[in-house]
Amino acid sequence: MANDYFQFKQFTIYQGRCAMKVGTDGVLLGSWADLTESKHILDIGTGTGLIALMAAQRNSQAQIDAIEIDEDACRQALENVQASPWQNRINIFHGRIQDFQPEHSYDTILCNPPFFEHSTPTPLHSRTIARHCETLTHEELLQHAKRLLTPTGKLCVILPVQETTHFIKLSQEKEWFINKLINIFPTPQKQRKRCMLELSCQKGEYSEEDLIIENKRHIYHESFQKLVKDFYLHL
């Protein structure tokens, strides 16, 4: 059973009421996305508020909005934000991204999205919503990200490898460009398991890199340590 909280260097995530607990995927995306020029950041499907809080720690000037469809998770995210050093820069919204009408556009949108479009739902409905594309399809994510981004804005996501192939094809059909791709390997000996993507509506210089999480069980690889060192307690 997962702990009710996860302690980071500068903030704590309580997660007892959230279907999706703190995981490596969220930490990877929150650590990797380029936020350097971002004044307004949006986290879609914030869950515990993890990625929004990581964005606030990394960019001391940005205003961050985070939206979550699950009411219990939304309340938990709000509590986590209010207990953090950045409560004045993070706003939590309860609702669907399809209905979201903010007063400004965003420089960066972050999303650890519902992964699975063609797999068996989980018995726990809230977990199904968080993991499966019942309430937010990949096509809708691309549509509403384009609506909410500035003309030069970026969408950053993390996906399983199989879903990445479909997502890239769909994004290209919708006139998005892939600017960055990170292949994530659990260990040097295993096949890649996840991919992180940076997309925009303006074509940029493409780059692709590999990242390895562990050399072996509980021994983090140098590339992973370098990425998350500002967050994990013992790095």
Core attributes:
235 residues, alpha/beta, Rossmann fold, eight-stranded mixed sheet, 7 helices, 12 strands, 29% strand, globular
Describe this structure in words.
There is one protein chain. The chain is α/β, with parallel strands linked by helices and 235 residues long. It has a single domain (5-228), classed as Vaccinia Virus protein VP39 (Rossmann fold, 3-Layer(aba) Sandwich). It is 29% helix and 29% strand. It has seven helices and twelve strands. The chain has helices spanning 24-32, 50-58, 71-82, 125-131, 138-148, 161-173, 222-228, and strands at residues 5-7, 12-14, 40-44, 63-68, 90-94, 106-111, 149-160, 177-185, 194-200, 207-212, 214-216, 219-220. Strands 5-4-3-6-7-9-8-10 form an eight-stranded mixed sheet. β3, α2 (50-58) and β4 (63-68) form a beta-alpha-beta unit. α1 (24-32) runs parallel beside α2 (50-58). The chain is globular, with a radius of gyration of 17 Å.
In a nutshell, what does this entry contain?
The protein has 235 residues and is α/β, with parallel strands linked by helices. Helices cover 29% and strands 29% of the residues.
- Number of beta strands: 12
Strand content: 25-35%
Largest sheet: 8 strands, mixed
Shape: globular
Helix content: 25-40%
How are the strands of the largest sheet arranged?
A: 5-4-3-6-7-9-8-10
At the first level of CATH, the class is: Alpha Beta
- The structural domain count equals 1
CATH topology: Rossmann fold
Content-based structural category = alpha/beta
